[in-house]
Structure formats: structure tokens, C-alpha cells
Design goal:
Blueprint (H helix, E strand, L loop, with lengths): L1 H10 L3 E7 L11 E7 L3 H14 L3 E4 L5 E3 L4 E7 L8 E3 L2 E5 L6 H8 L2 E2 L11 H6 L3 E2 L2 E2 H4 E8 L2 E6 L17 E8 L1 E2 L2 H18 L6 E4 L9 H7 L6 E2 L2 E3 L6 E4 L5 H19 L8 E3 L10
Parallel strand pairs: 2-5, 3-5, 4-19
Antiparallel strand pairs: 1-2, 6-7, 7-13, 8-14, 9-10, 11-12, 11-13, 15-18, 16-17, 17-18
Bound molecules: flavin-adenine dinucleotide.
The site of flavin-adenine dinucleotide has 34 residues, from strand 3, helix 4, strand 9, strand 13 and strand 15.
Length: 306
């Protein structure tokens, strides 16, 4: 393993950390180390990294804010890429904003308001980065990323370029990025509107979240996608799992679709909770709950089958 790490480190100008702990870089605070965590210095450095990974056959995982990730206890083999918040030039042209994918999503509303723009209220309470929000088509009942995106800048080992958002198959909490594709910048279209009403909508959303989500505990948000016409949280609660604990992890008492880390939880504990809920919901309701959370890294054989 040393050889490829030395080779990549020698080609890059950005920050390179060996055996970097990933748990502190995820919102649920679980997971082992990355072989190599890389924060590229600029777009050329990123291009060098992507070419290097391809040439050396090293797998690459993009880490945003880690707000929707379950990292394996064994960690992640290969490179974990962490984009800096300001990679690539940002710009504003009327209602069109070009923003860096590594920037925190929560910064967008304030920025929009300062320009007299509205339409991105839904993102205010969603932790993570704009790149992660794009990859996940993050959203709420107020809206989702695909409503705002006009173009996405993608980098791969073959180069970087802008792609029309409609070519990326955005759907409920998902989109189709090319294999190995890294979202580096996004182009959004907002609209002029009532900034005070926009602020009020965000405050109402924040208040609602404080009442209904375990925001003071480490979590990765919704565990399962909502099945058509139903709510995953209702189903998990109906099969008696609200508050159920395995090791250091539990189904939240506050929101039954959230898993929380009560202290010292392992990815294996979380997977056991997920598997139990899927089995019980399948048996009782004949509904197959699909995970929304993304798994990252090397799970022991069988463990990754949630
Ligand atoms: C308390 C809480 C509340 C939440 N509420 C919501 C909600 O209301 N609605 C909602 O949709 N989600 C919600 N989430 C989940 C999470 O915040 C979103 O999915 C968020 O958009 C993830 O962004 P991230 O940067 O943290 O991505 P990560 O978790 O780091 O990554 C998620 C996926 O995106 C990929 N990815 C990340 N960045 C890039 C990039 N630049 N290029 C290519 N791929 C990339 C990763 O490889 C991974 O597959 C919540 C989470 C928490 C903890």
C-alpha cells in the first residue's frame, strides 16, 4: 500500500493525510480511517489526483460534509477526497449563482438573501455541502436541489466540464453521476422575491426540525427513503423499534427514521438496526425499505447487506 500513497503524495500540492480518522468527519461520528485523505489545492491538483488514482488503480470516494454517510468500522481503502470550500471561481450574474461544491449548504440562504434572491429555503436546515446536496438531490417538502440546478461542473480522470442538470437523471434523493465523477461547482437559478417571507419559511422549518428531529445527538438524518405514499419513520415505529438499541446506536426516540449514536457506536451496530427494521417492516407490511444513507468503505462480508 505504501507505494501508491507515496506516489500520489509526491504528485499533489494539497493536504494529504495518511490513515486519517473519518468518524470526526461524519455527522454520526462513526467509522474507521481512510488510507489517504486528500484535500486538493486547486482544480489542477484535483485533476492530477483523479488521473493518478486511475493510473494506479486506486479507488476514490468523495466526502462532502459526511451528513449522509455510514463509514465502515474498518474504514475506507484508497483515497477519500475532501473538496476545499472554495475550489474554483464563484460568481453571481443576476439570478444565476455559480458556487463551489465543497461549500457548506447552509451558507446559501444568507448569500441569496443578501442579493434579494429567494427559492432555496429548503436547504437551510440540511447539513452538508452543496456537492453532497447535489449528489443526493437533497430536499424537503419545500423543494429539492433539482428545482434550482441548471448546470453541474463535473471532474473525472478524463477532464472537467459543465453538464446540463437535466442530463443527470435527478429523482427523489438521487441523481446519476458518471462513475468516478466529482461535482466541483454548481450553477443555480434563484428568483427575486420576498426575502422576509423566505426568512419566515426558514425559521418555521428550523422550529419544526427542533421539535421533530434529534438535533442534539450525532445522526445521519433519514435512514430510509420514504416508500411511495408512506413514511419510513411511521413504519419503523409501527414495528416497535422507536428507541430500540443495539450496542451504542439506537433508533431515535424523537424521530423513528433517524438512528443516533449514543456514544461509542460502531457501524456494525447501525447496520444491525437497519437490518432489523427492514426485516420487521417486510414481514408486517410487505414493504421493502430502501436505505437513503450511503455506505462507505469495506464492510465485512455479509455486513454490507442491509
Ligand atoms: C440532522 C440531519 C438532518 C437532515 N435532513 C435532511 C433533509 O431534510 N433532507 C435531505 O435531503 N437530507 C437531509 N439530511 C441528510 C444530509 O444532510 C444530505 O443528504 C446532505 O445533502 C449530504 O451532504 P454531504 O455533503 O454531507 O454529503 P456526504 O454525506 O458527505 O455524501 C453523500 C453522498 O454524496 C457523495 N458526494 C458528496 N459530495 C460529492 C461531490 N462533490 N461530488 C460527487 N459526489 C459527492 C458522497 O460520495 C456520498 O455518496 C439530514 C442529515 C442530518 C444529519
Amino acid at each position: 500500500m505504501a507505494a501508491w500513497r507515496d506516489e500520489l503524495a509526491s504528485r499533489l500540492r494539497g493536504e494529504v493525510t495518511r490513515d486519517a480518522p473519518l468518524a470526526p468527519r461524519t455527522s454520526i461520528r462513526i467509522g474507521g480511517p481512510a488510507d489517504l485523505l486528500v484535500k486538493p489545492a486547486d482544480p489542477d491538483d484535483l485533476a492530477e489526483l483523479l488521473r493518478g488514482c486511475r493510473a494506479l488503480g486506486v479507488p476514490l470516494l468523495v466526502l462532502g460534509g459526511g451528513a449522509n454517510l455510514l463509514v465502515a468500522d474498518e474504514g475506507v481503502r484508497g483515497v477519500v477526497l475532501k473538496l476545499p470550500p472554495d475550489l474554483g471561481a464563484e460568481s453571481v450574474d443576476g439570478e444565476r449563482l455559480v458556487l463551489s461544491a465543497g461549500a457548506p449548504s447552509a451558507r446559501l440562504p444568507a448569500r441569496a438573501q443578501a442579493l434579494g434572491l429567494v427559492g432555496c429555503e429548503f436547504i437551510a436546515g440540511i447539513p452538508g455541502t452543496l456537492g453532497g446536496a447535489t449528489a443526493m438531490n437533497a430536499g424537503t417538502r419545500l423543494g429539492e436541489m433539482k428545482d434550482l440546478l441548471s448546470r453541474v461542473e463535473l471532474a473525472t480522470a478524463d477532464g472537467a466540464g459543465w453538464v446540463e442538470a437535466r442530463a443527470l437523471g435527478f429523482a427523489y434523493r438521487t441523481c446519476r453521476l458518471p462513475p468516478g465523477g466529482v461535482v466541483t461547482r454548481i450553477e443555480l437559478r434563484l428568483r427575486r422575491g420576498d426575502v422576509a417571507a423566505s426568512q419566515a419559511a426558514m425559521q418555521a422549518d428550523r422550529d419544526h426540525r427542533r421539535r421533530t428531529q434529534p438535533l442534539t445527538q450525532p445522526t445521519f438524518g433519514s435512514t430510509f427513503r420514504n416508500p411511495p405514499g408512506d413514511h419510513a419513520g411511521r413504519l419503523v415505529e409501527a414495528v416497535g423499534l422507536k428507541g430500540h438499541r443495539v450496542g451504542g446506536a439506537a433508533w431515535s426516540e424523537v424521530h423513528a427514521n433517524f438512528i443516533v449514536n449514543l456514544g461509542g457506536a460502531r457501524a456494525a451496530d447501525v447496520l444491525a438496526l437497519i437490518r432489523l427494521a427492514r426485516t420487521r417492516v417486510r414481514e408486517r407490511f410487505d414493504i421493502d425499505l430502501e436505505p437513503e444513507v450511503r455506505l462507505a468503505g469495506d464492510f465485512p462480508t455479509g455486513q454490507e447487506e442491509t
